[in-house]
Structure prediction request, 337 residues.
Amino acid sequence: MKTWSNLWQPFISEENFNLAYLSAKKGKARQKQVQRFELNAAEQVAKTRQSVINGTFHTSKYQSKTIFEPKKRIIYILPFNPDRIVHHAIVNVLKPYYERYFIADSYACLDGRGQQAAVQRCMELIRRNKYCMEGDIHHFYPSISHDLLFEQYKAKIRDTKFLSILEDNIYSFGGGKNTPIGNLTSIWHGNFFLTELDIFCKQELKIRDYIRYCDNFWLGGNDKSYLHECRKRIEEFLWEKKRLEYSKANVFNVKQGIDCLGYRLFDNYILVRKRTVKRMKRNIAALPDRFESGELTVDELRSVLDSIAGWLSHANAYHLAQKMGLAEIRAKYIVEK
Prediction:
């Protein structure tokens, strides 16, 4: 098994921490803590870096809030400095290793893949197979065992100093499990944690059309009974190796369509799921008030409209887009250059 070594020096380099600071502040310029930080950014970045080198850095206390879109979840929040900067510094160093370790059909986090690439890959699955097994994991991020995650990292990483930073990060939330939603590192930890599932499905179960996006995954096949067997074997693997359980695991004919990341997929067309449409309509209805109250700038309003339009553009949703009134809001509030 290939291991990862010599991570500490690239991690603590001035270049890495300066890049981490720039990445952490992207899209956060209006936050007061970021604005205060920028008054003497160079000095504060150097101080944060030195605390890591000295071994005095430890994850700060979490704050939490509950969000309800797209579903009810608890988000955990850490300060911009030092925590979010350190998280970006960690990911900067590990990202090239993650990219080589993750299988080609793992789509979350990675440049050049992402949500729409996963959707198109699911379309290929539909066209090549009669049946699909879809699964997702019950309370995935809150259920990740700290011990199991750290053991998996220790099997890959041969750099004790860098492991000490990961250990602080992984065990920063008490209780023995939970990679807190809201941390940049949690997204990558989750993807790393389930790569062993990917390898199991591809190499042990011999599934050609296997796709995973975070804790959602799809297997294609023409033998329905074998997919039921795969469902059972994956269930056993998840519990025995990861102490995880299904929240959903179904085997069905692809003619029924596949729910995939906000869309409903069929062999020759893509629909936006009904609950996704309802959420979009609520968000769109609130945009004029949010803009007129000053909650959104012109650029932020344009970004929201572009995001929704982009989402719809990947589906057979021309008439839906017209009914949503995106063009009318854009014409009323945005003067295009």
